[in-house]
């Protein structure tokens, strides 16, 4: 019983650590372009607030978000009627768990209102699968278009 309680306590702590990592990864690596509140910056990077939750209603959106952090993207992207032509770096130096955490941070902090009711957090396994078969820019653009 004692062992079970320790295991449960560790699980809870690990959950908290993952949540904190997501914010830490975001603040240190994403906020410079996308801004601390995810509002984006004109001419630099599109908003991540209020623009991503709905995408998770379809499978393409669920592939798009892990895909863009693994592969990066430098294309013309319209968001909320504004055209962005910047460079989204890839973030392959981060672990699958860190990338899942940063995406979950963005989704559950900046996109809560639009998340589908059956949303389940993005898993590290999904990042691992994406890393193993890195999407092309063409695939990313198609998945983005299919998950508007
Ligand atoms: C150097 C600036 C820069 C940094 C740093 C950056 N991004 Fe981006 N991000 C961009 C740009 C520019 C785009 C649009 C790419 C394009 O036009 O093809 C983008 C697009 C995105 C998109 C897709 C948005 C959409 O509407 O489809 C997501 C999600 C995203 N970034 C997440 C992140 C995360 C998470 C981080 C941190 C790990 C991060 N970005 C760091 C510049 C940046």
TrEMBL record:
Coiled coil: none annotated. Residues 1-19 form the signal peptide. The keyword Heme applies. Residues 17-110 form the Cytochrome c domain. Keywords: Heme, Iron, Metal-binding, Signal. PROSITE patterns: CYTC. It comes from the Bacteria. InterPro entries: Cyt_c-like_dom, Cyt_c-like_dom_sf, Cytochrome_c-type_DH. PANTHER family: ALCOHOL DEHYDROGENASE CYTOCHROME C SUBUNIT, BLL4482 PROTEIN-RELATED. This is Cytochrome c. The lineage of its organism: Bacteria, Pseudomonadati, Pseudomonadota, Betaproteobacteria, Rhodocyclales.
